[in-house]
Structures are given as C-alpha cells and as structure tokens.
C-alpha cells in the first residue's frame, strides 16, 4: 500500500469494486482473508506501474548544460532497465534500452535520459511506440545532431501465454540525423554498445 493511497476516494472505491468483480470472474472468493485487501493493493501497484500518465517526460530534458568544451561526439546511456505493460493484454514486458545522442551545443544530465525512458514506459504501451516516443522527445527538446534509441525486451504476452516462446526477445530501434545518414556514426554507436557490454 502506498502512503498517499486514499481508501475513501470515490474513484478508488469504484476501481476497487471493479477489481473485486474481476476476482469473482476468475472464480475467487473475494471475502477470504488473503483477498480482502487485494483490491487496494492492486490499485496501489497500478499507481506505480502507470505513473507515466502523471508526468510529461519531456520536462526532464528542459535543463541543459552548454559548458562542455565543445563536446560533439556520442553520448550513450546503455542498459537502462525497461519495465512496461503491453496495451493489448496488460501484462509486463521487460528489458533494456540503449539511448544515445550527438549534442548540438547542449547536453542533458545523464539520469534524465533514464527518466524519459521511465516516463513513457510506465504506461500501457507497445514497444514500437515506446521507442518512437523516447527518440522523438529527445530530438524535439535537445535538437541534437542525431538520436538513437534501441530497445530489447521480453514480452510476457508472448513468453507465458499464446505461443509461449519464453526465450524470444523483441528488438526495436529508431535512428535520426547523423546516426541514420552517416554509416560511420552508426557503426560507432553499435561498437560502443558492444564495448559497454564486454566491459562487464
């Protein structure tokens, strides 16, 4: 239970009623001890899982720094944890995001890139849209020479239901500017991602 979860809020009361209805639909006895507080716990958990609806991820990119000695090469934050939920089945998909950009006079705090990923991931999503939203936000706010977003995830809707292919991974990417138009920049990006993994 989160501290700010209000059991008396009308919207929360209505939502908890829906959770009880789903439990009954599954065949459960909603009055047994183990499930008495489950509706409230589910709502509190959903507040965490879908906190991205309460923010504009672009705001994390507003504060930038120009005193970087003219740095104009790749900035890469790799292996950012991704925890999201498929909008088709509302089950998790999890994995890693690699986010890079080439500055055009301004850089942003490194943690802000991870916050942008979280802001879009903590919503009902499809991986393709998530990839585009992250890249578009960085491109729009920072106006860099190029942006690259590569996401690799396992989807529970594919691993644990349906075709049940538990070892399958889905990779999506969005490249803009120099990363898209310059093969050497693209190769450098892929080498840096590979180098980062080999150092662990």
Number of domains: 2
C-alpha-based Rg, rounded: 20 Å
Spans of 5+ residues with little confidence (pLDDT < 50)?
A: none
Please, what is the CATH homologous superfamily of the largest domain? GTP cyclohydrolase I, C-terminal domain/NADPH-dependent 7-cyano-7-deazaguanine reductase, N-terminal domain
Q: In order across it, which strands form the biggest sheet? A: 5-2-3-6-7
Euclidean distance between termini CA atoms: 36 Å
CATH class of the largest domain: Alpha Beta
CATH topology of the largest domain, what is it called?
Answer: GTP Cyclohydrolase I, domain 2
Sheet of most strands: 5 strands, mixed
Helix and strand sequence: HHEEEEHEHEHEHH
Give the integer mean of the pLDDT values: 92
Beta strands, count: 7
Which structural class do the helices and strands define? alpha+beta
- What form results from the Cα inertia axes? elongated
Share of helix, binned = 40-55%
Overview of this structure, please?
This protein is an alpha+beta fold. It folds into two domains: 10-52, GTP Cyclohydrolase I, Chain A, domain 1 (Orthogonal Bundle), CATH 1.10.286; 59-194, GTP Cyclohydrolase I, domain 2. The protein is 41% helix and 22% strand. The chain contains seven helices and seven strands; from the N terminus they run ααββββαβαβαβαα. The protein has helices at residues 10-26, 38-49, 110-121, 127-142, 156-159, 177-181, 183-198; strands at 64-65, 75-86, 92-102, 107-108, 124-125, 146-155, 170-175. It has a five-stranded mixed β-sheet. Strands 1-4 form a two-stranded antiparallel sheet. Strand 2 (75-86) and strand 3 form a beta hairpin. Helix 1 (10-26) crosses helix 2. The longest helix has 17 residues, at 10-26. The radius of gyration is 20 Å and the shape is elongated. The two termini are 36 Å apart. The model has no long low-confidence stretch (mean pLDDT 92).
